[in-house]
Amino acid sequence: MGSIDLNCDLGESFGAYKIGMDEEILPLITSANIACGFHGGDPLVMERTVALCKVHGVRAGAHPGFPDLSGFGRRNMSLSPKEVKACVTYQIGALQAFCSSASIKLYHVKPHGALYNMAAKDYKLAAAVCQAVREVDKNLVLLALSGSEMIRAAKDYELTYASEVFADRAYQSDGTLVPRSQKGAMIEDEEKAVSRAIRMAKEGKVKAIDGNDISMEADSVCVHGDGKKALAFVRKIREGLAVKGIEVSGF
User: Fold this and answer.
1) φ, ψ of residue 161 in degrees (nearest 5)
2) Beta strand segments in the chain, E
3) Could you tell me which of 3, 41, 1 has the C-alpha nearest to residue 22?
4) What are 220's strand-pairing partners?
5) How many Cα atoms occupy the beta-carbon half-sphere of 160 within 13 Å?
6) Averaged pLDDT, 191-210
7) Nearest of 8, 77, 69, 14 to residue 47 by alpha carbon
8) What is the C-alpha radius of gyration for the chain, rounded to an integer number of angstroms?
9) 67-117: per-residue pLDDT in tens?
10) Bridge partners (DSSP) listed for residue 143
11) Within 13 Å and on the Cβ side, how many CA atoms surround 214?
């Protein structure tokens, strides 16, 4: 019997544009990473998503990204560590205000998209993220890629952290995610996503895109809320974990 957190990136709709199935997914997860207006989300969406977290008892986390709405925060940007720190601070503060207004706790911070992937490899960017988190609230948990530079920086800055794994993304042999521009980067087969999630939770291992096994810590498993099969993935992963005796609970 083990346990793992089930998280999803949500609140990414903005203006007239609806992204994801937040209302359907939220009751099934334990942690929500809520967009803070830079790559997706807007004040009304942020307010509504925080309210849904409160209704369903889901832990609310800030999901700060690059200031790149048209690219959905998934394009690499050349920002200095100082700029990254300021951007992350700004976005945490915005979501923290909505959480305070709703009388719930902001629990964690998980960078989004290109910022997440760049900080996973670049210690200076990872340190900038950790500095922002620590200076806003040293009790916030950093949710970051297992074995990444962000985890190393979190240890150095004495932040509580949770190691994240992905059910719907392919891995490279070094433990980083396969870029979305490459074939096979996204896992679209539901049964494959479920089996990978279960193995990561039980064994701490996953098969990389080159066929070799890699080891990882798995405190939380992520499903991307904007994926076409996000709701099906969340349902089946939760069911699959239960069958194997793995409890879904917050990290």
Assistant:
1) -135, 160
2) 2-10, 31-35, 59-63, 106-109, 141-145, 161-166, 205-207, 213-215, 220-224, 246-248
3) 41
4) 5, 164
5) 10
6) 89
7) 14
8) 16
9) 999 999 999 999 999 999 999 999 999 999 999 999 999 999 999 999 999
10) 162
11) 19
Tokens 């832990």 belong to residue? 59
Give me the residues paired with residue 229 across strands: none
Give the alpha-carbon dihedral of 136, 155, 163, 34, to 10 degrees: 10
pLDDT band at 191; cut points 50, 70, 90: confident
**Which bin fits 158, alpha (ψ -120 to 50), beta or left (φ > 0)?**
left
The residues near 95 (Cβ < 8 Å, ≥ 6 apart) are: 34, 36, 46, 50, 60, 62, 106
Per-residue pLDDT tens digits for 119-175: 999 999 999 999 999 999 999 999 999 999 999 999 999 999 999 998 888 898 888
Residue-wise pLDDT tens digits, 8-45: 999 999 999 999 889 999 999 999 999 999 999 999 99
Rounded to 10°, the helix 230-243/190-203 angle is 40
- Does the pTM surpass 0.85? The reply is yes
- Amino acid at site 63: H
> In 10 A of CB 180, how many CB atoms?
13
Domains of the chain: 2-248 (3.20.20.370)
